[in-house]
């Protein structure tokens, strides 16, 4: 059994450790925001960077209107029996769009970085920790911010879910309702998937094609399980992707994570590495070998045809 003296000693140690962590939190958090503000103020040339909001609005409205006009009525009229073969697989992968499994680990990591003594790390370790913290903030703001925007839009539109299509049709709206059956547009799961896959695509350019395929695959699983109309999914993917794009521009203007080439998408800074240099080079060699092997297999198949 633990004596009272030992228990009190452990309690005092816990209090001291908690007080130390709180002191580090009170020091690190304002310092980080001051650092970002100074970097943003020093980059005056990037403040006038053109952001294609008109192009974004036109393309998004056109894609959503196309999906609503051609796919929503057809998909709503399909019998439930037709969806049954794909329903089970859709239910298996549809929860990938939940934001909690991504936001909670990111939040815990950010809390840890805010309560750790950075001076206890070596210079190279601090660089990796800084890069990881900046990337975590970027992913957290992209996923959480796009999710909040989608929540507001759900209330504004109040679109009925597909299960009510037989009663009200595919285009019934009841704004400002707390009933989940009228919160179909846009899809929250698709928004999370769009934001997450854009983060992966822009941070790891070699995975860009895979990220696009994954976004479409996991996003449209919401339509397969009957939780959303196709246009809801298209809107969610666009909101998640474009919001992450906007956040990347903001980070690039502060000199964090991204460079901002003229008339091109933000690019990851060359100094940005999440892994130690040796591990980073090994990872790049592995990717290169995988790409070479894939090209060889594709070439052999073409020759066989």
Write the layout of secondary structure elements.
Elements: H1 4-42, H2 53-70, H3 72-77, H4 80-93, H5 100-114, H6 123-157, H7 165-168, H8 188-203, H9 208-219, H10 221-224, H11 230-253, E1 258-259, E2 267-268, H12 277-304
Describe the 3D structure.
With 305 residues, the chain is an all-alpha fold. It has 12 helices and 2 strands; from the N terminus they run H-H-H-H-H-H-H-H-H-H-H-E-E-H. It has 2 domains: 49-272, no CATH class; 275-305. Helices cover 70% and strands 1% of the residues. The mean pLDDT is 79.
User: How many helix segments?
Assistant: 12
Low-confidence stretches: none
Number of domains: 2
Order of helices and strands: HHHHHHHHHHHEEH
Number of strands: 2
Terminal-residue CA separation: 76 Å
Largest sheet geometry: 2 strands, antiparallel
Q: Name the strands of the widest sheet in spatial order.
A: 1-2
Report the mean per-residue pLDDT as an integer: 79
Strand percentage lies at: under 5%
| Secondary-structure content class | mainly alpha
The gyration radius over C-alpha positions equals 24 Å
Broad shape: globular
Proportion in helices: over 70%
